[in-house]
Amino acid sequence: MASIEALNRAIFLLLNAGPDTPSWRIGLATLCAERLIYLVPLLLLALWLWGGEARRSLAVRACVVALLAVGLNQIVGLLWSHPRPSLAGLGTTWIAHAADSSFPSDHATVFAAVDIALLWAGELTLGAIGLVVGMGVAWARVYLGVHFPLDMLGAVGTAALAYGISTPLWRWWGQGLTRALQQLYRKLMVFPIGRGWVKS
Fold first, then answer.
1. CB 135 within 8 A of CB 182
2. Residue 76 sits in which domain range?
3. Rounded CA gap, 64 and 106, in Å?
4. Is the pTM for the entire model greater than 0.90?
5. pLDDT digits over 121-147, tens only?
């Protein structure tokens, strides 16, 4: 375990931006680290509003997997709290963050959970794009000093575990949940549906 932690710290120090890093690079990394996460709900919303039955079901499932994965992260953090680099006296931290457990990364977990759901459903193009964007977010959060590299691998692990846990549950109630949400959606969105702005 000590050797893994030593490797984790060594890789972090190689990737972390130093004090002499140009401001434009820090700005770009900050954009990736803090803003690209909003693409996830926008994607799921687009799948719901303009997708057919299969894509709506996928959007709901991806959302469920992501929420379950983030919940698993909280349990992991309670059972094994791993300090962030700044609390361990390592590197340079460029963005503010709560002093909670760094392992696993919630941002990377959300991307990994949605990507797994997309790829498993055969949405290869969307999944590949999400994978590239998610890797950019993971890099940026290490680069800016708020996470270790292993926090990102842990995120993939909890996302995969969440997908596995949700699979039998989804077989039982996924179709019913999607159908109930569609009925509510059609009641609330009568006007835009009638105008053809979104799908029924």
1. no
2. 47-94+103-189
3. 15
4. yes
5. 999 999 999 999 999 999 999 999 999
